[in-house]
């Protein structure tokens, strides 16, 4: 196996294993990893339009309307008419959605603890740099970059 092929499959295997762990941890909450990502993005950046939400998601390319519809039906997300554009809706978490986002954050913390232990003694910053080489300028990488920018801007505003 060539090193580049091994690297490709290791990235795929790591993503699948991480997703499997997250799926199992979210099962008691009756959420998928994609639904959990929507809740967490809304928790950190609400209110958002559907388009703005889609721009911040890694789990979904394009419009996340199907995901949002399920979360609205589960009373986790509410749609409100936009104050600036009558044709747009604004998405926010319901009270139940806020509680669920807090529970998702706890699940994520456990996953991050696992990753921290598994990578102990390794340079995460080198791995992050290497992975950015693969995703920069691609839809998933752009979503992460936008989220990082928004988080940075929010912390500067405080």
TrEMBL record:
* HTH marR-type domain mapped to chain residues: 3-136
Gene Ontology MF terms: DNA-binding transcription factor activity
Q: Pfam family of this protein, just one?
A: HTH_27
Recorded superkingdom: Bacteria
GO BP term, pick one: response to stress
Protein name, per record: Transcriptional regulator, MarR family
Source taxonomy: Bacteria, Bacillati, Chloroflexota, Ktedonobacteria, Ktedonobacterales
